[in-house]
Amino acid sequence: MTRYYTDLHPAEPDRSRWTVVHALRDQAGRAPDRTFLVVPEEERQWTYGQALADAERVAGGLRGAGAQAGDRVVVMAANSARFVLTWLACGLGHLVEVPVNTAYEGLFLSHQAGLVGARWAVIDCCSVRTMAADCSSRWRA
Fold it and tell me: Does the global pTM surpass 0.70?
């Protein structure tokens, strides 16, 4: 038997606006000083306004480097604020985020990076050596 949840009454009736970008912009507009992200390991937190500003900065960096709407961006990063902000930046920049497990290496990592046809990569400091060693022919610094 199939059951349907019928009590959902979305605040935004236009389904084309059901994206993280619209939700972040909406919350940043309504409550810019409200806490959005807390990262105890980094001893930092972001409000909606700060997260939007930082994600727009990252998106601007990618677009300024030549990334275009629809480009795939490999993201190889540990769970961190940088990962979240890069994810948001991809949405803001109309880029396609391709998360890659930080445990991947060797031919499997090279295959994953090549399979998606990514033109860009955002790699955290813990994964940069692995990516550089295994996929150096794919990327330029």
Answer: yes
